[in-house]
Amino acid sequence: MLGKTISLYRKAYSGLTPSTWLLSWVMLVNRSGTMVIPFMTIYLTQPSMGYSIGEAGAVMGIFGLGAVCGGFIGGRLTDKFGFYRVQLFTLSGGGLLFFLLGQMKSFPLYAGSHLR
């Protein structure tokens, strides 16, 4: 049973180009990094950070607003520059910006960093 399933997957995905595989791996790594977002409210409300539940909720709300706006802008940029360039730039840039997120200590910086 397992052998048939593996064979089926190999047959289905063997025709993909190396560029597609690279982009898929980059997206996997990037999406794995975004698992931080749901835990951001818990992190912000810890005594060491000192933000209220309302402030943490505001950051999450701003994140949602940024995601909606980013989807719209990303679609426009994709039409103009092509999907590969836009995805490569945004996934690489987003991954690098997560490193900066750990260094931010003020509420306006946290809130502004979630507007993408």
Descriptive account of the structure:
- The protein is mainly alpha-helical and 116 residues long.
- It has one domain (17-113).
- 76% of the residues lie in helices and 0% in strands.
- The chain is built from six helices and no strands.
- The chain is extended, with a radius of gyration of 18 Å.
- The protein starts with a helix and ends with a helix.
- The mean pLDDT is 82.
Labels describing this entry:
single chain; 116 residues; 76% helix
Share of residues in helices: over 70%
Radius of gyration: 18 Å
> pLDDT average, as an integer?
82
- The overall strand count is 0
Q: Total domains, how many? A: 1
Distance between the termini: 44 Å
Major sheet description: none
What is the helix tally? 6
Low-confidence stretches: none
Q: Tell me what portion of residues adopts beta-strand conformation.
A: under 5%
* Broad shape: extended
Which structural class fits the helix and strand makeup?
A: mainly alpha
Order of helices and strands: HHHHHH
